[in-house]
Each structure stands twice: as C-alpha cells, then as structure tokens.
Design a protein that fits this description.
heterodimer, A: about 625 residues, elongated, B: about 550 residues, alpha+beta, 6-stranded antiparallel beta sheet, 5-stranded parallel beta sheet, 20 helices, 21 strands, glycoprotein (chain B), HEX_eukaryotic_N (chain B), beta-N-acetylhexosaminidase activity (chain B), glycosidase (chain B), Beta_hexosaminidase_sua/sub (chain B)
Chain lengths: ~625, ~550
C-alpha cells in the first residue's frame, strides 16, 4: 500500500497546468469564518480577534460544535480535537488493513479507493477524472511533510449485508509528537462497520481554501452503531424507468448517510423492466421500450455495487395487484389470462390508479410463470429478505370475472367479498411457497415482507400472514390501529407511514388537477421527527414499546419514493437531503428535534454536492454562511 | 404515399391561430388521434384570406398563380382579424378533404414541385444526374437553381410575384454537385427565394432526401446569419441526437436565404407579437419552408419544426414528419421567467441551460433578479467592493464578461434580458460595502444605526433622504448602461419596502415635513420617481414591481 504515494505524486504533476488560479482569489476574500460560541460566524478578517485564525467554512464546521460535521450523529462517545493538521491526499497512507478473508480484504480495498476519491472531491477544482487538483509534494512545502496514516482492523468474515449485521465501529485519531502526522485506527467486527468508519473519517476532513489543502482534526474518538437494523429507501422503476447509473448514484447517497437498504419496487402494472431470463415475454410485452430494461448483468452488478457501499438490495415483486402490463401474452401462448383487468376502464372501478391489472388466481399457468420469475429474482437478489408486495388489491376486478366465479363455484363457494379475501389468502400462501421453493440456499429461511393491506389487517393478518413468515411494512398513517395490533401479535415491522415518510407527496397531481393524493410535501423536519418508537404511544405503554424494540419487532424504517412523478432527472432532489433526515432518525434515533440538527444537515447536504449528488436546497447559501442569523 | 388524416400533434409553445396537418407521410402512424376541442377555438384569430383577384405570377414549373397585388408571402399585410369561429371556418380549418383545398388556395404556391413530383422521381438508372435534373425541371429552372445568376429586372408587379433565382451555390459548389449526385434518383429538390422589398423572408428549407446527416451539416455551413447561426447548429444537433441510427432518407437543412441580410443582425426587441410570427410548411414532397418577418420568428418556427418530428419505430432509429402547415404568433409579447441569483448563486452554465429550455417553450424574456439581501454577485468595475463584500465568495460572481456572454446566449435564442437591481429594499448585500447609503434605523428611539428585532435591523433600505443614494445609483446605472450590450430596460425592483425602519427615523420625519409628505408611501414615491427619471435620462426604460402602485405612488 505504501507505493500508492508515487502515483499520486505523478497525478499531481499532470494536473498542475489544469488548475485555474482561483485559489489565490479565494484567499483574497475580505471575510473568513471562525468559531464563536459553538457557531461558525462570518467575519471580516480585519475584525478577527488575536486568538482567532481565519478558517474556511468547511474547516470551521469540523469541530465548532460537539458533533462537528458528522451525519448521522454517532450513538456512542464523540470527542473531537480542537486543532487541525493540513495534508494532501497523496499523503494518506493505509498502513494496515486486516480482514478475515481474501474476499473481505478485496472489498476493503474497494472502500479505500472510494474514500480516496472523496478526498479529491472536496477540492472545488476536481474534475471527477481521478486527477488530483491538490499541489504535488515539493521541498519547502511544509504541508507536503504531513501525513494521515490509517489502520483498519476487521474481525469477522461477513460478506453480505444481513439484517442485524454488526455495523458498529470505533474510530480514533491521534496526532504524533512532531505534529506532522495523524494516525487513525478503525476497529470493527465486520467490513460494514469499517466502511461506516471510513465514512465518518471522511466527515472529519475538509478542504481548506486558505491553504489549498485538506485539514483533519488532530484528535478524535468516536464509537458508533445504529439504533435500527433496517434503514432504507424505496425506489420504484415501473411507473418510470430509472437507468442503472442513476440507481448507483442513489446507492452512493445512501452510503453517505449509512443507510443500508434499497427496496427496489422493480415492477408494477405500468411496466415490467426486470429481464427474467426464464420468461423473457415479461419484458418483451411489459417494458416501456427495448431500452428500458434491467438485464441480469446490470442487476447483478448493482447488487455488488450496493454491497461494497454497505447496502442490501431488497427486491419487491408486487402481487397479486400492481401486476398488469407484461402479463398480457398468456392467451396467445395458450396459457389463458394470467392477469385480469389489464388496462381496463374505467380504471377507478378496478384498481387504485391507472393502469389496472391483477393476477388471475384461477389460472394455474400464472403460478408456473410466477415461480419462474421468483427464481430469477432470487438468483440475483437477496435471499434473506424478499418483498412480496400484497398491497391495494381491488376485489372488484375479480368479482366481475367469470373465470374466478367458476373457480370458486368448483370449490362450492359463491363469489363474494369474503370468499375473494379467502382467494387472496390462497394466492398468498401459494406464492409464499413458490418463493420458498425457489430460494437459492434452501437452508436459509427467507423472510417475506408484505405491505399493510386488507390481508394484513386486524381481521385477517393472523389467519393469512403468520408472524413467523412475514414482516409487515406499514405504509398507512401513524394513527392506523393496525400498528399496535401487529406489535402485540409478534409481527416484525418496518415503518413507512405515508404522513411523514412518503417522499413523492406534495407535488401537482398526476391525474386530474390540484395536488397529489398525499400532499402536502413532507419537509425534512417532518421526516426527521417521525419516530417509530414514539408513534407507538399511547397505543402501547413505554414498557411494551421497549420490549417490542428489544424483541427485534421494530426493524426500522424506509422512505418510499413512488415514481409516478419521478425519473432520473428529478430523483436526487426528491430523495436528498430528506434521506439524510431519515438516516439520522434511524441510525441515531435522537432525543433532540430537527432544530438541533439544522446546521449539521445543511453542512451534510453541502458534502453531498461536493461528492456530485444533486440534492434539493434547503436554504439560501447565506444561511449556510451565517447559520446564527437564519432562524424561524 | 399512403396518407392518413390526423388532427393535432402536440406543440408546447403557443399556437397563435392556426395549425393544420393535412396529411401524414407514412402509413404507420399511431392509432390514437387527439381531437381538437372546438370549445377552445371559439376565440381564435383567423387571418383574412387573400382575395382571389388581382395579378398573376408565373411559378417555376410554368403554372400560373392568381395572387393579390401584394405578395401573399408577406404575412404582415393580412393582419389577423378577431372574430368568432363559424361553422364554415371549422370546415375550412379542420381536417377533411376540403381543407387540403383550402390550404392550397391560401398558400402562395411559390414552390410547386409537388405537382410534378412523379416526373422528377423517375430517374432512369445510370442517367447522368445533371441531365436528369435538366429534363425534370426544364432548362430555365435548372439554370435558376444551378446555373447562372440572373439579376432581376422588371416591373414592381413582377418583383412582387416573380421568383428570382437563388442559388445554393452560383459557382457550382462541389458540395452541391455531390449533393445532386447523391440525391437524384430518389428525389429532387430545390430551394427558392421570393424577393420582395416590403418584407423579410426567411425561407428555410428542409428536405427528406437520401442524404445522411453529415452532409446536412456541411450544407448548413453556407448559412450566414449571426442571429440564427447558433439555433441552426443547435437544432441540427438536436435532430441528429434524436436520430441515433438514421433518419429515413435523411433530413436536409439546406439553406437560409435572406432578402435583407441586415435584419439578421437586428436586436430582437420583443415589443410586438408580430416580431415572432412565422409560417411553417411541411409539404408533400418533404420540403420544409419557414417564413418569418424576423429572426425571432424563424427561431420559433425551428422549435415547432423540431416538435413535429416523431419516432417512427420502437428503437427511435427512424423519424417521420407529417405534412403540416402552421401559422403562429404569440398572444402576448412579454413571456418571461425570473431567476433569482442572489439567494443562491446560479452558474453561467446553468443560466444558459435555462435559456435553452425557455427557447423550447418559446419564452422571450429573461428577467434576471441579480442581487438581493443575501448576496451581490454582480461585479461593478466602478464599485468593485459591492461584490467583493457582497458575493458569497470570489468564485460566485458575474463579471461584465459573464453578463455579456449570458445576454449573447439569450439573443441567439430569441430572448431578451431584463436586469433587475432591486432597491430601496432588499439591499442588505449593498450595505456590506456601502452602509453610508442605507437608512440608519433608530431601534432605541435615539441612536442612529440601532436594530429593533424583530421589527427592523440597524440599517435597512436605501436612504431616500440622502443625496448620496441617488448619486451612487446614478453612477451604478450609468456603468450598467455603458457595459451591458443591447440594454433597453432596467428593472428597478421597488418591492417590499418595509416601513418600521423608516418610521423609526427622525430624519425621515423631518424629510417628510420639509416635503409636505404625510405618509411613507409619498417617501417611497419620491424615491421611485427620482429613479424612474434617472433611468429614463440614461435612455433606458424603467420597470418596477407593482408595489409602488399598490402604495398609491404615481
């Protein structure tokens, strides 16, 4: 690893001619920042007190308050030193990196590469080409004498993100006696803890335009680990297709926030972009176009991309509703109608939004195809968690259908709302068995996730969705009485209550006029303050809530971004920085309100921009530069 | 050609009063037909049709055309007449076989090769292309296009209706030769200009030919009109990027012929909707003609043209265009977007991107709210301290060169820029370097420059009682007028002048007494009037937000 120094020096030489002389101009600013009363204030240089040094805003933020620029806030001890060391990224040395297996070591090397690029990204002139815009090492340049030395130790041979995997770490920084080197020690049980530590370490470093170098705290101790195991986002690629490159950027953003789950709502009634190698008809008929398809290779690559960044992709195959386009080839292929009501009108009679479509539980061929699709999904995606959807079934679609009526008649039943619920339950049980039959490693007990629905209701949940087999994802409001019911009946839960965590709310309607159905927009403050534990009271006592948490029943939460009004052009602004707010709620579960987090989230958002994301802007830049003067 | 009737394709911009598509070039058009809602057409403006009598002109193909004494190409001489749409109009203006006739009747058949297309298409294999062309068109026409230049001479009547030859290349440009060789055998083409001293004609021809796009671009290089140059490249690139594989037969942007080249360089004033009027024809023989009174109109036409292209197959490798006629002009002459570059700095690149998107939507005014309380990114050479202290950082500024580049980018997109320098409120960023021209507030009732939170800060609003405020602003605006190219308007802001600070000041009270004012609106009026006069004296038209009027300022 020591040899890494040389290439960086080379790159430094190459980049010299490319750098405009902007840095000098920046130094000429009449203002600088300095830390006063735990706040970075912008003052004229001539008015700095004798004991104050002019700092760039980013450097000032590193340690001006107890949490510096850290996001999400660590859950253990945080001690931040008060001095800085200037250094160039070419003088970062990864001295030791221990791992329990070759595979983990290789992943660790990836993480180191990513970390190194973050350092370059902090420089405003970085062009995202791997070429360092920092000065090369030269004799007489004191900063070139300084180094950052990093040791990483991981213990266990864990390769994949699994629920409750140990993501914790201890990070400590110490300056040597000569004050020309900071050594960093990262200790974690798993690679994922070590990766989180590197993310935290990158948040202790900032670009300093006063010296055109990076600055790091001279001393720090941070011990940290998440409060909730499941911390995620839902991305919907059926309503609108989202290219793989954009999904990678979303995963990048998740990793900045230590979010660990990407719930991929890959198909729906609108389009079927997942290429199933055993049933290629699905994309042939169901994709928006031949270009708007995820190939097996792309999906596999994405799973690996996410894994390196500490993120698990949880695939969802929504059924029996939210399935339509892509299933229409049955009659021509002699398989009968595998889905009913496809694009049927008036849509409001047969589904919750156009286009309609619902699988046909009376058709055995449908189950055969479904099993093949499950297998193709499970071959690529996770075998621990698999989302089966199960939301928003409109029984009226089945009610009017002769095939369904006949099917029920053969069983000696009439076609009624109640028998249709039974039929739905029958579908779910068959589908669950198909998932179990098709999982890669039979020994693993795949856990299915289901949305709250009529089937997951107080009346039907226990009968149709046994708590041992299913995790329930709650999308209804925080006041839904089914929430305490599920907890009391031993269900594991993931919170996505739409009144706080639906990121697609609050824009103009996409059908009809006015605003969309779950308006208003959920501001980051609202996202931040939605606490899964708090919303359980008063329905549950503090003791019951505590027991449920300790019992592992409150897995965490997830913010869905349904894509009726989203594509790759609008994706990042709608996700970020609100996902940061979600991340701190789920990682840290803070006792404090959004107000205490405001200046940190603004700084964190700025860091997202430096790394190339396009998050929404929360405030005028003036408020970033003058945090103490911007308040409600 | 297997034609099919289709009503309306989507157009993002304004459809002034007429949009017809009479025929579709290819068979495989989508089944969906969007019908025009007649209700929405109740108040459309219809052009008065040119009368059938008067002179006659000879067309290139030798047929005779009955036109009025004035050139029917001059759209301005038939002003739109607003009236209710009658049943007979509907029959005329919406699909049906009759419409095709009405199109032909209305349109000056300056280019009428369509009627002889079948002859032209008959290219004996192995024939010498030039000879074939000669045979197809006749020697006279051939010479007009390809041969010698004939200076026009004749009566005024002839001038108005005759077709004076224009050559794509009078000197036998090798590119043209190449073009002929490639294109003949499939389709023939030509391009003509109507010469009429009373009007400005842009005839922009686009052909579906057996050319590939590289040639198209090369052809395009013969066009020279600085106001259109950028758009030509832009749309050519845009069409090419649509065309990821190929456009069947190729689309050829052949030439722009300008009757009066000087109009090309004229600044778009945006004062009259007529400036943006255009007529766009896509003819049966796959020719596109754009006629406009001004380059701004030509730009709007190009945008419409771009929107008329539709993918003919699933993998977007083939594009079609329907036979279309559009006559269009905007309902309002000011159609704008305001950007605020003070609350957040907007990089030049982003502003230019937005200007491009504005062009796609046929906007014509970019109102640039350059400065505000939060930051002052505008670099004044006379008062450099304004941005030195007022900008978010040294990187986040607009130098005079940046401003010129942005205004130039707007110009080639048919957009004019109105700079706003908001005063007397919204001036916190000015106060960072020029506190002396802000009004000292009396927060404690006695001391100037004291705040009274949350009602007012220590200093707020430019000081209307201080003569320095006016001399400063005059010097500043003089610099703006001197340095900003093509400046015709300045937006003075004048919004949200909050009263508490001025109310707290005994100086303002004394000022009111001296001037006989009884309320603060009069003080604001005083300030506004002086600025309006100041800017007018610099030969620039002032604009302000509605606030002064709301406050009863005259």
């Amino acid at each position: 690893m020591g040899n890494l120094r040389n290439p960086w020096v080379l790159l430094g030489i190459l980049s010299l001619s490319l750098i405009p002389n902007l840095v000098q101009a920046e130094v000429g600013s009449p203002y600088a920042h300095t830390c006063r009363n735990k706040t970075c204030v912008k003052v004229e240089r001539t008015k700095l007190r004798a004991d104050e040094t002019p700092l760039s805003l980013d450097v000032c933020k590193l340690n001006c308050n107890a949490l510096g620029a850290l996001w999400p806030k660590p859950t253990g001890k945080v001690e931040l030193g008060q001095e800085f060391l200037s250094f160039y990224p070419q003088n970062v040395i990864f001295r030791n990196a221990s791992a329990a297996s070759v595979e983990v070591k290789a992943t660790l090397d990836e993480a180191v590469k990513i970390f190194r690029e973050y350092l370059l990204m902090y420089h405003p002139d970085y062009k995202r080409d791997g070429v360092s815009p920092f000065p090369e090492n030269k004799e007489g340049d004191n900063i070139a004498q300084n180094s950052l030395v990093i040791d990483i130790g991981t213990v266990w041979d864990v390769k994949n993100v699994v629920l409750n995997v140990d993501e914790s770490y201890v990070l400590s920084l110490e300056s040597n006696n000569q004050r020309n080197s900071v050594s960093t020690s990262i200790v974690a049980n798993t690679y994922f803890g070590a990766r989180n530590a590197l993310e935290t370490l990158s948040q202790l470093i900032a670009y300093d335009d006063e010296t055109n170098s990076l600055k790091i705290l001279d001393r720090a101790t941070i011990s940290d680990g998440p409060v909730f195991a499941y911390r995620g986002v839902l991305i919907d690629t059926s309503r609108n297709f989202i290219p793989v490159e954009s999904l990678k950027r979303v995963i990048d953003g998740l990793s900045y926030n230590k979010l660990n789950m990407l719930h991929w709502h890959i198909t729906d009634t609108h389009s079927f972009p997942f290429y199933s190698k055993s049933v290629p008809e699905m994309t042939k008929y169901g994709a928006y176009s031949s270009r708007k398809i995820y190939s097996v290779e792309e999906a596999t690559e994405l799973v690996e991309y996410a894994r390196v960044r500490g993120v698990k992709i949880v695939a969802e195959f929504d059924a029996p509703a939210h399935a339509g386009n892509g299933w229409e080839w049955g009659p021509a292929a002699g398989k009968g109608e595998m889905a009913l009501c496809i694009n049927k009108e008036p849509w409001s009679s047969y589904c919750v939004e156009p286009p309609c479509g619902q699988l046909n539980p009376a058709n055995e061929n449908m189950y055969q195809v479904l099993g093949k699709i499950y297998k193709d999904l499970l071959d690529i995606f996770d075998n621990e968690l698999f989302h089966m959807g199960g939301d928003e079934v409109k029984l009226d679609c089945w009610l009017e259908n002769a095939e369904i009526t006949d099917y029920l008649k053969k069983k000696g039943k009439n076609n009624t709302q109640e028998t249709l619920i039974e039929l739905w339950g029958e579908f779910q049980s068959k589908a669950y068995n198909l998932v179990k039959d098709n999982q890669q490693v039979k020994a693993n007990n795949v856990t299915a996730i289901m949305w709250t629905s009529e089937l997951a209701s107080i009346e039907h949940a226990v009968q149709y969705l046994p708590a041992n087999n299913y995790v329930v994802q709650i999308w209804t409001t925080a006041q839904d009485p089914v929430i305490p019911f599920l907890i009391k009946n031993n269900y594991k839960t993931i919170f996505s209550n739409y009144d706080a965590w639906y990121l697609d709310c609050g824009f103009g309607a996409w059908i009809g006029e006015g605003n969309n159905w779950c308006s208003p927009y959920k501001g980051w403050q609202k996202v931040y303050e939605n606490s899964p534990l708090q919303l359980l009271s008063p329905a549950l006592t503090p003791e019951e809530i505590d027991a449920a948490y300790k019992n592992g029943q409150i897995l965490g939460g997830e913010a869905p971004l349904w894509a009726e009004q989203v594509d790759e052009l609008t994706l990042e602004g709608k996700l970020f920085p609100r996902l940061s707010a979600l991340a701190e709620r789920l990682w840290s579960n803070p006792d404090t309100n959004w107000y205490a987090a405001e200046s940190r989230i603004v700084q964190s958002r700025h860091r997202h921009v430096q790394r190339g994301l396009r998050p929404d802007r929360l405030q005028p830049e003036w408020c970033h530069q003058n945090e103490e003067l911007c308040y409600g | 050609m297997e034609g099919k009737q289709q009503d309306v394709v989507s157009l993002v911009g304004s459809l002034g009063y007429e949009h017809k598509i009479t025929e579709v070039m290819r068979v495989d058009i989508p089944e969906t037909v969007i019908n025009c809602d007649n209700k929405e057409l109740q108040q459309v403006e219809l052009p008065e049709k040119p009368g059938p009598e008067a002179g006659h002109c000879e067309n290139l193909n030798g047929t005779r055309w009955n036109g009025t004494a004035d050139s029917p190409l001059d759209l301005t001489i038939h002003p739109p007449k607003k009236r209710k749409l009658a049943e007979s109009d509907l029959a005329n203006y919406f699909p049906g076989t009759k419409i095709k006739e009405s199109v032909k009747r209305n349109r000056p058949s300056v280019i009428s090769f369509a009627t002889r297309k079948s002859q032209q298409l008959e290219n004996p294999s192995g024939a010498n292309p030039e000879e074939h062309f000669l045979q197809a068109l006749g020697p006279r026409v051939y010479n007009m296009i390809y041969g010698n230049s004939n200076a026009f001479s004749g009566t005024l009547q002839d001038a108005r209706c005759s077709l004076v030859r224009t050559s794509i290349s009078a000197d036998g440009d090798p590119l043209v030769d190449e073009h002929f060789k490639k294109s003949l055998g499939e389709k023939t083409w030509m391009e003509v200009q109507v010469n009429d001293s009373s009007m400005f004609t842009v005839l922009w021809s686009l052909y579906l030919l057996s050319m590939n796009f590289t040639e198209l671009l090369r052809r395009g290089e013969t066009i020279s009109c600085s106001n259109l140059e950028w758009a030509r490249n832009h749309y050519t690139d845009a069409i090419r990027s649509l065309n990821s594989v190929r456009i069947e037969g190729g689309i050829s942007l052949v030439d722009v012929v300008l009757d009066r080249a000087d109009r090309c360089e004229e600044t778009f004033r945006g004062e009259f909707t007529e400036e943006e009027r255009y007529q766009l024809d896509v003819t049966e023989d796959a020719r596109v003609e754009i006629r406009a009174n001004n380059t701004a109109g030509a730009l709007r036409a190009l945008e419409s043209l771009y929107q008329l292209l539709w993918p003919a197959n699933d993998d977007y490798s083939l594009y079609n265009i329907n036979v279309t006629q559009i006559v269009d002009l905007p309902r309002f002459s000011h159609r704008g977007i305001m950007l605020d570059s003070s609350r957040h700095y907007l990089p030049e690149k982003m502003i230019i991107k937005i200007l491009t998107i504005m062009m796609y939507n046929k906007f014509n005014v970019f109102h640039w709210h350059v400065i505000d309380d939060q930051s002052f990114p505008y670099v004044s050479r006379k008062f450099p301290e304004l941005s030195e202290k007022g900008a978010y950082s040294r990187r986040q500024v607009y130098t005079p060169e940046t401003v010129s580049r942005i205004i130039d980018a707007a110009r080639v997109r048919g957009i004019r820029v109105i700079l706003e320098f908001d005063t007397p409120g919204h001036v916190n960023a000015i106060g960072r370097s020029h506190q002396e021209i802000l009004t000292p507030c009396y927060g404690d009732g006695e001391t100037p420059g004291t705040p009274n939170p949350p009602h007012h800060a220590a200093y707020e609003n430019l000081d209307p009682t201080n003569e320095l405020s006016y001399t400063f602003m005059r010097e500043f605006f003089t610099e703006v007028v001197d340095t900003v190219p093509n400046i015709t308007h300045i937006h003075l802001g004048m919004d949200e002048v909050y009263a508490p600070c001025w109310n707290s000041s005994p100086v303002i009270k004394e000022f009111m007494k001296q001037n006989g004012y009884t309320n603060l609106s009069q003080v604001q009026g005083h300030y506004t009037t002086r600025h309006v006069e100041m800017v007018r004296s610099l030969n620039v038209t002032p604009i302000a937000w509605q606030d002064p009027l709301d406050e009863g300022v005259e």
